[in-house]
Amino acid sequence: MKKLPLLAAGAGLAAAGLAFYSYLDLMYKESIPKGPARRILESQTITDDALARKCAESMKWVDEQPLETVDLKNDRGETLKGYLLMAPENSKTFAVFAHGYRASYRGDPANFYRYYYEKGINFFTCDHTAHGASEGDWVGFDVYESRDMLLWLNYLTERFGDDIQIILHGVSMGGATVCQMANKVPKNVKLIVADCPYTGAVDEFLFVAESSGIKKSAPYILKVINAMNKGLAGYDLAETDVRESVKNAGAPMLFVHGTADDFVPTKMGKELYELCSSEKELLLVDGAKHAESVVVDADGYYKKLDEVIEKYL
Predict the structure, then answer these.
(1) SS3 readout for 187-247
(2) What does the DSSP 8-state code read for residue 28?
(3) Distance between CA 197 and CA 216 in Å, rounded?
(4) Over the stretch 171-208, which tens digit does the pLDDT of each residue have?
(5) Of 32, 37, 176, 236, which is the most exposed, with the fewest CB atoms less than 10 Å away?
(6) pTM of the model
């Protein structure tokens, strides 16, 4: 009879251990072996050969450019890495790009360096906290990233002058990051481009869990994850919700979403577009999956960027 309580206790410890590892897998920097939670969130990498080749070509172009690497210390004491590509001729306009989950300065930003460079616009991006060469232990899912990006905006303004104009651009988690910044941006931000942003990490985690067949238990699992996150990473996942920021946006916004996005559902981008209080535009790319819009229809995407840049800058 005594074995039953021991077995129950053992099972409970095993479940707690699995939950803790899953949390670390999802939220901690990439120094632990990749587990199922991270595999699910990274499962949206481009697998189509032609599209993958386009991305590889873009990365090769970036690797050949004379990027300047800059350091910045954030308010959590972490040293972050930034990467700056100046336009061929002197320019006072900067595109500042926020990358997605588990990406880096040469991940999804790679599809945009050349576009902005050839348009005569300086291009800046960074490795977010706990990504790439930047320090940090915990992914912020737009909470820490948005705060850090505001520091980068201050850095650029102090270095290049109050008269610079800034385009904020982000994809996926980066799209949510620029949405989170929308009501906090300085006046020199003239345009915000949010590509496939989620409405909040809670919404996104629940959607991914339910899409993976974890339906009934998903809300309870998320409560456990959030409790761990508040204790370890220091923020509540509810803080990642970007709706209020978008409702009070301080700059015009372009929302981009693929119609076949089954990871961050298209309805999230549409909802944020509807909520946006500033001047706004929406580009839906037919047949594009998550973060694929620029490689599925580069001409259409770049044409729309041309239009909004001419309109708002």
Answers:
(1) CCEEEEEEECCCCCHHHHHHHHHHHCCCCCCHHHHHHHHHHHHHHHCCCCHHHHCCHHHHH
(2) B
(3) 25
(4) 999 999 999 999 999 999 999 999 999 999 999 999 99
(5) 32
(6) 0.91
